[in-house]
Design goal:
The chain is mainly α. It is 69% helix and 0% strand. It is flat. 29% of the residues are buried. The model has no long low-confidence stretch (mean pLDDT 74).
Length: 188
């Protein structure tokens, strides 16, 4: 059953609260564990802040299913496809109708595809982007993977922004009307 709730726009506090929680948790983690924070505690802090953001989004009535599906689908296509452009075009065309049906602006779909498929392509060794970067740098993809903060965090932030509705422009969903022949047939 599709989620038909009408989302309410986030207040400034709703938009800033998850970021503040994330900054506080990262600072607390680094203060507690020092250099050892990168061994795992920092990831826990990021997961807790993402969970907090999802609670804010649920409170505001936002449906994150379409954005999450687009981002996850795009990353999966980027991993399975051999080319970045396939990872961008295929999910865009696949989710276009669903975004239109839910009244989400096409720019949001474009951003979701860009934030997930495009930036994760260099992290996949058999993708053309990963093969090129690995060849230019002269190292395996797994060697530079831990240093690709933007590439790893961008899909996560994309889904997080979908949760809280940040920059998720709503448009009027199309009205489905019956053909004139169908209306005449029903009235007769």
């Amino acid at each position: 059953m599709p989620d038909e709730r009408q989302p309410r726009p986030p207040t400034l506090l709703d938009a800033l609260a998850p970021v503040i929680v994330m900054i506080a948790l990262i600072a607390l983690t680094i203060a507690t564990f020092g250099v050892g924070a990168t061994d795992g505690p920092l990831q826990v802090a990021l997961m807790v802040s993402a969970a907090f953001a999802s609670l804010v989004a649920l409170k505001k009535g936002y449906s994150w299913a379409a954005l999450a599906d687009a981002a996850i689908g795009d990353v999966l296509v980027a991993v399975t496809a051999g080319d970045q452009y396939v990872a961008d075009v295929l999910p865009s065309r696949m989710f276009r109708g669903e975004f239109r049906r839910r009244g989400i602006a096409p720019q949001v779909l474009s951003r979701a595809v860009e934030d997930s498929g495009t930036v994760t392509s260099p992290l996949v060794p058999w993708n053309t982007c990963g093969a090129y970067m690995s060849g230019v740098l002269g190292v395996q993809t797994a060697s530079y993977l831990p240093f690709c903060f933007f590439n790893l965090l961008s899909p996560v932030l994309d889904v997080l922004y979908g949760f809280i509705g940040f920059k998720a422009k709503q448009v009027q969903p199309p009205v489905v009307t019956a053909a004139p022949e169908a209306v005449e047939a029903q009235s007769a």
